[in-house]
Amino acid sequence: MSTDLDLFLANVSLISLLAIIGISLYGILARPNIIKKIIALTIFTDAANLLAILVGFRRPPSAPPVLLNLQPSPSEIAEFSSTAVDPLPQALVLTAVVIGMAVNMLIIFIALQLYRLYGTLDVRKVRRLRG
Length: 131
Hints:
This protein is an all-alpha fold. The protein has helices at residues 2-30, 34-55, 74-83, 87-118, 123-128. The protein has a single domain (2-66, 81-128), classed as Helix Hairpins (Orthogonal Bundle). 3% of the residues are buried.
């Protein structure tokens, strides 16, 4: 029964995550306000990072990807490889979080400059003001 519940929760999590990605893409593409686009982009990157973490997830019993024994036996290596979580998605997400923060700061700076120069954050109005 616990396996059925785990599978159900995993499916609900994945479907919810895909719905969040879809809604955030709608916010990026359909909303004319730049601030709303920035918020939707932030939600999209967080959802994509969570999806990357879920790819590297391993059901319990799981262990951190660290060998404590300096000279492990073959049985310890086999147990480690069957229980250790993949560290690559975690490292990629950590890098993506830092890069995402820098990109968000750049976009916010550009939005502030647009508001300072044109007095609006509406993409349609800024597009008409091009000169």
